[in-house]
Specification:
The chain is of the alpha+beta class. A hairpin with a 2-residue loop joins strand 4 and strand 5. It starts with 7 loop residues before the first helix and ends in an 11-residue tail after the last strand.
């Protein structure tokens, strides 16, 4: 059973985001970005309350900007999904979880040491250049 409901179009959308946000960090980095997308869909709390589809997660606007910078600024995001990333996206949507992104709802690439908190949310760990952050309270993300 998949971690969240998704369509074939969702696989391509997640694949495009994974590539755009973490291509330089290899397959593991891309999987971790995908994991955050899935976690946001599962969470139903904090900034992610009421999100019911992969498309809503990817194109969510917060504070006047898209939650994922690649939607606004990334030409890679608007390139067609490649087979390699589609395979990784499906893996993430179906079953893949790994620390530090296992329960993370946020990540950032600060081009500096990772802050110990991000908007008062605790640091979960780092993979290459990305810092991952857990929610203080959000039971939905910790299920499954």
């Amino acid at each position: 059973m998949p971690r969240v409901k998704y369509t074939t179009a969702d696989i391509a959308l997640v694949a495009r985001m994974m590539r755009a946000e973490a291509e330089g960090e290899g397959p593991m980095g891309e999987l971790m970005v995908g994991n955050v997308i899935v976690n946001r869909l599962k969470a139903d709390c904090l900034d992610f309350k009421g999100l019911r589809s992969v498309q809503q997660v990817i194109f969510q606007v917060q504070g006047g900007n898209y939650s994922f910078e690649a939607v606004q600024k990334g030409n890679l995001f608007y390139s067609p999904a490649r087979t390699k990333e589609k395979r990784l996206a499906k893996q993430t949507l179906d079953y893949w979880v790994h620390s530090p992104s296992r329960w993370a709802l946020w990540y950032l690439n600060p081009h500096a040491p990772c802050p110990t908190t991000w908007f008062d949310q605790p640091f979960a760990g780092q993979f290459k250049q990305h810092c991952f952050y857990l929610p203080n309270e959000c039971p939905g993300v910790y299920n499954g």
